[in-house]
């Protein structure tokens, strides 16, 4: 594997989740809790508030809530897995064997399109992914009206080294994150995967402005949610009756422990040290540029998912407050990513 380079604090928010109201009310509850009269005057959301809204939406959390001892048991088990990342990694599948070969080929500065074409041709899923990517509007000339790209060598040259790296990393991670068993994990995993793709894209777009490596940022975005997938599998195992944990304290602890686990699995899988460090430090004060890109990319991706699901309003300061023009431009890019 050496190729792989708190909270909705207001009581009103808890009541909204308990009553089954959409997370869209989170912004309003946040404003009321801070003495703000209208949603338009809300303060920007904190990272913990976004995590709480995102988790409750992913889990479709509704009463009855799992009791506190169950919450503690899940967090204790997640902490134990973080101390033994081999056990945590065993709860997610490995990547296809061909991917490391391809990534090694892409590490060389003199990328050999013919050799890559030969390797890719052995896996028809990868062939289809390369053609699909090369024919997206983002790569074709804006007013292209000719036939689609149908030569593997041409597709590889069009995508370039970084484009191929990102495509292969995305293909490698899809089964790790999105294909999970268990009632809750099966529902949440495809959504987590979509958010991971958006987070990776956002982090890679933000990285140059922060003087960070775009591909490292992309890898970190794909990897940071692996621990969260493990956490959802634990919830499935320890909450067989369907009563889910979703208290503020639990959500904050779960995201913190899941990030630690992601960091340690990344190290176990021989990710580059800067990527591992960025995952662990994202959101911390004074973090390195790569961790800053990852933290902001993850924030934008989670907010984009909630807005697109009509759980939050895109114009609310709860969503857009504190975001500069580059971040807002990336936020808009994420909305169109699947169709662009």
TrEMBL record:
<dbReference type="InterPro" id="IPR013976">
    <property type="entry name" value="HDOD"/>
</dbReference>
<dbReference type="Pfam" id="PF08668">
    <property type="entry name" value="HDOD"/>
</dbReference>
<protein>
    <submittedName>
        <fullName>HDOD domain-containing protein</fullName>
    </submittedName>
</protein>
<feature type="domain" description="HDOD">
    <location>
        <begin position="92"/>
        <end position="285"/>
    </location>
</feature>
<dbReference type="InterPro" id="IPR052340">
    <property type="entry name" value="RNase_Y/CdgJ"/>
</dbReference>
